[in-house]
């Protein structure tokens, strides 16, 4: 097990071998190093893929509705 917050890296870049403990770190990596590519992270544990809401296009309404539903269920940090 890793010493950093007890989490093992599990969110992989879909374009290279980069892997992170948090999907947001992988989003930042993809935006910086893989410009003009869809921004998402692959969960190596196989539970799901994590998509950055900002990159979802209009022609993918099913994914957009799932992201909206998911984001409404996130508890507020305040």
Automatic annotation (TrEMBL):
Q: What is this protein called?
A: C2H2-type domain-containing protein
UniProt source species? Atta colombica
């Amino acid at each position: 097990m890793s010493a950093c917050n007890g989490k093992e890296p599990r969110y992989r870049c879909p374009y290279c071998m980069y892997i992170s403990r948090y999907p947001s770190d992988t989003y930042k990596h993809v935006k910086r190093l893989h410009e003009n590519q869809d921004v998402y992270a692959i969960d190596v544990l196989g539970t799901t893929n994590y998509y950055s809401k900002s990159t979802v296009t209009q022609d993918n309404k099913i994914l957009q509705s799932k992201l909206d539903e998911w984001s409404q269920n996130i508890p507020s940090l305040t």
